[in-house]
Amino acid sequence: MKLGVVGLPNVGKSTLFNAITKAGAAAANYAFCTIEPNVGVVAVPDERLNKLAALYDSKKITPTTLEFVDIAGLVKGASKGEGLGNKFLSHIREVDAIVHVVRCFDDENIIHVDGSVDPVRDMETIGLELVFADLETLERRIAKAQSMAKADKKYAEDVDRLEKMKAWLEGGKPLRSMPEDGEYKFFADEAGKAFVAEQFLLTSKPVIYVANVDESGINGNAYTEKVTEAAAAEGAECVVLCAKLEEDLTELDDEEREMFMQEYGITESGLDKLVKASYKLLGLISYLTAGEKETRAWTIVKGTKAPQAAGKIHSDFEKGFIRAEIVDYETLLECGSFTAAKEKGKVRSEGKDYVMRENDVVLFRFNV
Ligand SMILES: Nc1nc2c(ncn2[C@@H]2O[C@H](COP(=O)(O)OP(=O)(O)OP(=O)(O)O)[C@@H](O)[C@H]2O)c(=O)[nH]1
Ligand SMILES: [Mg+2]
Q1: How far is the CA of 18 from the centre of ligand 2 (A)?
Q2: How far apart are CA 288 and CA 76, in angstroms?
Q3: Using an 8 Å Cβ cutoff, are 75 and 83 in contact?
Q4: Which of 10, 132, 139, 160 is most buried, most CB within 10 Å of its CB?
Q5: 144-198: per-residue pLDDT in tens?
Q6: What phi and psi values does residue 318 have, to the nearest 5 degrees?
Q7: Closest by alpha carbon to 327, among 302, 359, 351?
Q8: Which residues of 197-223 are buried (b: 16+ CB within 10 A; e: fewer)?
Q9: Which of 5, 11, 101 to mutate to test the pocket of ligand 1 (most atoms within 8 A of CB)?
Q10: 217 CA distance to ligand 2 centroid (A)?
């Protein structure tokens, strides 16, 4: 899963991104694929993995990951070619969600492109730029769909839907807040939702706001209150963090980090909060596999059935799926081992229609 980082210039996007990249690089016990310089990978924090690995005496722990894409700051008029940002919008067309960073700290030495610190205004500025960018894309799509509709009537419905999406955007609002009734009724069913998603428009993606504060604002300040309120008004989450502090945190070992966080009165790093919020936003869960060789978490979308979940590990697991032996994580810990859990009748045998759950520790049986 991939998230795109947006925001005005100088709000701390790259600082946050660097923290992410460093945190990812620090989790050195899993192999990274080579990625472009503006794509960072972060491990999804998961307390279950250590406990499970201890139980199995695993040689290796592999957390699941999220990817973040850093782009240059957008300014007013970005969609019309102002600044550098519009060139980079294309880099986030295919992300699954947007992380919108807003500046919530005062610092005379760091220029604000619009002259003052006002996070809610900034949220609107960026929000509108994304709307404009989508409008431009839609206009091209409409023209194309119109010419296709001339040759084949089945495209007429596409034109109609695209026009409705355009009308909504023209009100200055993102597609993710498009209603599902009245003339927007098509958006209520699966096919309609899929149609909108397939357009890869920026404002149809779910969004998380990151209120970037300085050290003194780590537990919130007057700016973050406003951001949280504005985010809540559109049904979005807001994560308060200090990007600079997060970057420092990645350079400490576990013990030092613990002390550091205590000093600031925080129990969870901002990065961990962000990752968890992203997971929730995207409707993701992770199931677990464990053994002597490796204990590992696997990301799936909520509602995924056992064979498709198995396919995340290897396509042969999906093709040759027979059944899944599953024990709940908590139960497994209580029993002390998979064998003990089995003896107590706590290991379930699930078939191809089984919908995976968050705390499933799984052994897939397959045949190729
Ligand atoms: N005081 C303070 N400064 C910060 C904080 N976060 C970032 N900065 C500083 O703000 C400046 C801009 O940060 P960047 O992370 O480069 O901002 P950006 O959003 O990537 O900017 P562009 O790439 O130009 O769009 C840098 O000098 C950072 O050190 C913070 O929490 N507190
Ligand atoms: Mg930057």
Answers
A1: 10
A2: 45
A3: yes
A4: 132
A5: 999 999 999 889 999 999 999 999 999 999 999 999 988 888 888 889 989 999 9
A6: -75, -50
A7: 359
A8: eebebbbbbbbbbbbbbbeebbeebeb
A9: 11
A10: 22
CA-closest residue to ligand 1 atom 23: 72
| pLDDT tens string 6-52 | 999 889 998 898 888 776 554 443 333 334 568 888 888 888 999 99
Distance of CA 25 to the CA centre of its chain: 19
> Can you spell out the DSSP letters for 217-275?
GTT--HHHHHHHHHHHHTT-EEEEE-HHHHHHHTTS-HHHHHHHHHHHT-SS-HHHHHH
Q: How far is Cα 208 from Cα 111, in angstroms, rounded to an integer?
A: 24
Chain centre to alpha carbon of residue 139 = 28
The ligand whose atoms approach the alpha carbon of 16 most closely is: 1
Give the distance (Å) from ligand 1 centre to CA of residue 102. Answer: 11
> Which residues make beta-bridge pairs with 362?
326
Contact (Cβ atoms closer than 8 angstroms) between residue 65 and residue 42? yes
Mean pLDDT of 254-267: 88
> CA–CA separation, 134 vs 137, rounded Å?
5
Question: Is the pTM here over 0.90, yes or no?
Answer: no
209 CA distance to ligand 2 centroid (A)? 17
- Report the nearest-CA residue for atom 22 of ligand 1: 9
What pLDDT score does 89 carry?
A: 79
State pLDDT tens for residues 50-100. 999 999 999 999 999 888 888 888 878 777 766 655 667 777 888 899 999
Ligand 1 atom having least distance to the Cα of 8: 25
DSSP conformational letter for 305: B
Coil, strand or helix: which one is 42?
strand
DSSP β-bridge partners for residue 66: 42
Q: pLDDT value at position 44?
A: 85
CA gap 326, 362 in Å, rounded: 5
Q: 255 vs 6, 182, 244, 251, CA distance in Å?
A: 33, 57, 19, 12
Given this model, what pLDDT does residue 82 score?
Answer: 65
What pLDDT does residue 37 have?
Answer: 62
Rounded CA-CA distance 161/159 in Å is: 6
Phi, psi of 206 (to 5 degrees): -65, 155
